[in-house]
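We include the entry.

. . .
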Amino acid sequence: MMRSFAAVIPAAGLSSRLPAFKPLLGLGDATTLGRVVRTCRQAKIREIVVVTGHRSAEVAEEAERLGVRAVHNHEFMQGMFSSVRVGLAALSGGSDGVFVHPVDIPLVRFHVHQRLMERFARSDAPVLYPTYAGRRGHPPLVRAGSLPEVLAFAGEGGLRGALADRKSTRLNSSHRIR
């Protein structure tokens, strides 16, 4: 059975810990946003939604240049989880699972997404995570059936808190994934 996947890329923050604005920061031959979008495309992710906030017009312009849809989070100052919610709510539907891939983690290789998608077919876990050296990483892959609960979550801890009570599967790697 052919599965369909989407990605939400939160890119709404202030980038206050860097002297440059993260989504538009040059990284090799692309911006950090461009690298994340490219990775998602290489993994054959069907729908990609970028969530803007701070410097929204510039990020939306870059998203348009990259050929993906941008949606604006008017409440981006409330934190990344507010952007995750806006992105999830903006998806067109029909995806079996959704990656949440923050723009400030641009060096994930496309085969990490592919391996998670392969594992998705053999698992009934609501969320799958890549791991390295026993540590959970990004991007999580959330099963579509879990999205209403994630959207409704009002507790502490943002996305991590929303996913904490869900049975998860970790895609372990004993070697460096390239």
Q: What stands out?
A: Residues 172-178 have pLDDT under 50 and may be disordered. The radius of gyration is 15 Å.
